[in-house]
Amino acid sequence: MPISRGYVAKRLMLSALVILGVLAIAFIMTRIIPARPEFLWAGPHATEEQLKMAREKLRLDRPIYIQLCYYLIDFFRGDWGISWRTRLPVLNDLLTALPATLELVIAAFLLASIVGIPLGIYSALNYGGLRDQVIKFVTVLGASTPVFWIALVLQTALGVWAGILPAGKRVDDYLVYVTGFKPITGFYIIDSLIQGNIPVFLDVLKRLLLPAFVLSIYPLSLSARMSRSLMIEVLNENFIRSLEVWGVPQREILFKYALRNAIAPVIASLGLSFGYTLVGAFMVELIFVWPGLGYYAGMALLSYDYPAVIGVVVLVAIFYSAINLVVDLVHAWLDPRVRL
To answer: Would you state the CATH architecture of domain 90-302?
Structure first.
């Protein structure tokens, strides 16, 4: 594989610098917001003495750069602070909420990959025809429409008016109580199958469909358009025309030669869209009351919970950096022309 260890080491160092930069910016931005977080910590009816003690405990009486130094020291020791809203360690809160977001994002990403790439190939094979034009229109519309608007429309139409799918929440609380379901990994689909709890599995799957579909629209549209344009380009190459002249079957040309040359950039774009989908999940989670990182971040922002906000931002930065590195490595592995 044409990947050097020096390149990987360099990328890891740059990723670490990016994450530190994001952390510093997020920390400073949360500190300059005009708010009184000591009231959140001490309570709305706290006395002036209690508020003073809260400011000292939270180090709000220190200069920002001193607060940042303390935070970095704690961060490198694995202490991401205490949430001022939940009074629990931020890292624990994030690890509790992360599986819900990953379950939603992975489901959306799989749906986008399974549908988007074949749709783009089908559009390329019908280049210039009515089917191609319809697919182009639908994918452009899907890529340009705000995800929160689609979520609100489908939630209202399918969840509230038609009642076809649940309009929110990750699982029915009553069903959890009746069946005795207990999360193990945090991925409810996997946990329900491990426990053989079919009613909870079906309920979780039913509630996952609508938000996962909404979240898959952008990466699906992107992968369809990318695979379409790349397949059209590859199918017009001279070596493809030569294979057609030599009488090579169309199916073999498509899957053995054309798709092999076009798939690497498509996978790279899908990998980058995974990070976008992760951020897009935040708004979808708020709309569907999905208890993941997005819902946690929304509640933290509304309550000026600085440590929680910083923790979410840093975690997303870590995911983005890791995804970018993995995408580059996978691209180089699939395409021998790429050297890193």
So the answer is: Orthogonal Bundle (1.10)
